[in-house]
Amino acid sequence: MFVRFRCARYMAAVASISVLAGCGLVPPGGSGGEQKVTVGTTSAPSTLDPAASWDGSWELFRNVHQTLLSYPRGASEPEPDAARCAFADDSNRSYSCTLRDDLTFSDGDPLDATAVKHTFDRIMRIGVDGGPKGLLGSLERVETRGDDTVVFQLNQPDATFPFVLATPAMSLVDPREYPADSLREGGGVTGSGPYVLKSYQEGKQAQLVRNSRYKGYAERKNDAVTIRYYPDSASMVKALRDKQIDATFRGLSAPDIIDLQSDDAGGGLQLVEGAGTEISYLVFNPKDPWAGRPAVRKAIAQLIDRSAIAHKVYKDTVDPLYSMIPTGLPGHTTGFFDDYGKPSVDKARDLLLQDGITEPVPLELWFTSDRYGSLTAPAFAEIERQLERSRLFDVTLRSRPWKTYEAGYRSGEYPVFGRGWFPDFPDPENFIAPFVGERNALGTPYIVREITSVLLPQSRRETDRGAVVGDFERAQKILVDDARLLPLWQGRQYVATSEEISGGERALDPSTIMMMWELERKTSW
């Protein structure tokens, strides 16, 4: 039996609902009594092929694809979706899954053991740079046992493997529609999830309708969902107020959140607030002549005022973060605060002088203009102001849209750049492992043998995730000492809906991905 620390209790979207006005009857919406919901987000998919995605595309995948395991509402650990799974040995190196009976994809093709093997083999074979192959480092091979059983043979003990299987990166795909050695072309999706992708306009909207062949845990409370993609929070909230959409699920800016929290400004809207594990952080390129110097990195760590960023820019809708593992997970520390304390120009100057640096350091600081919300630019402007106010740095801010931005940092183009991170799964490993090693999610090799060869393998042997605290505290100490990753803030989760919609408080899974099937129109309120 897979036992783990029930850290999901920290991340469950416990509702804090405001601004409920009026009472009466609301029609269920749609013709013929059909339940139809329209949802807005600022996070559009970068791809429709799961083998290429390790990003916000997962929001769509969760709703149109199925995974072997998933997180039903209220679950604190992965539970059966397309299959029932368990470790087949005591060493946590052989993991067996038995599929539900008579599963099919939305086009009627069988979802059998061969299809599951095809799904994982193509992820490994295609190996998209920055894609989900990075989550399968412990996978050695996939075996089939008849039509309904798949066995994952691992190259090392890995108690976190069930969590990996529950991520939308491991969405099951139809071998007839998804080539074994290349990405699918043409913009189509064939899955076995709760919905079918009826139509898709890149960057504009996705139309989902019920999948009549679906067999899984999701209890759909609506018949169709339209997801609309917006360039920023302001336009998304305007659409919500104008009743062009019924709910939002990612990308609300702090000013809009503050506005929605006000009874006077709410206009009959509901705001659901929940604990979150999104983090924002800076990455230093070790090959850059300035960012590669520890003294420069540590001086920046000494100058950054996280509280000012959280309060002045984000209006206290985020919290200062002093370790890469966020509050609420085993291994969280306050390492950067413990080592650096309050921001200090004098201490930062001393760090630079010890390395013989006497002139202002030229620093090129990059951020993406369209990925992490409309306050990203003001946040980086605040960082620029803090560094230049010290007279120790001469900062140049630069930005690009996400698609070109991502290519730039993967090619090592940026000296210092900003990233955000939503967890693949709710476990401390997912805030350490993706960022270290020769090939990592940042495209910037970070070789740290004690973490990759000792601490991570050691923690993966332990199915009780509450027992791995010491390993991750040590990993945090190493990251603080190197200062190559500099955490800035930890976010909270907000879902805004019209007063006609219920289910917002249930719709976020432990990885804060929205389960669209939980949203429904009220028949009375």
Automatic annotation (TrEMBL):
GO BP field: peptide transport
Key words of the record: Signal, Transport
Domain Solute-binding protein family: 77-440
Family (UniProt): Belongs to the bacterial solute-binding protein 5 family.
Coarse class of the protein's main subcellular location: other
Compartment(s): Cell envelope
One cellular component (GO) term of this entry: cell envelope
Signal peptide positions (record): 1-21
Keyword Cell cycle annotated: no
GO molecular function: peptide transmembrane transporter activity
Pfam families xrefs: SBP_bac_5 (PF00496)
Signal in keyword set: yes
Protein name per UniProt: Peptide-binding protein
Gene3D superfamilies: Dipeptide-binding Protein, Domain 3, Periplasmic binding protein-like II
Natural source organism: Streptomyces uncialis
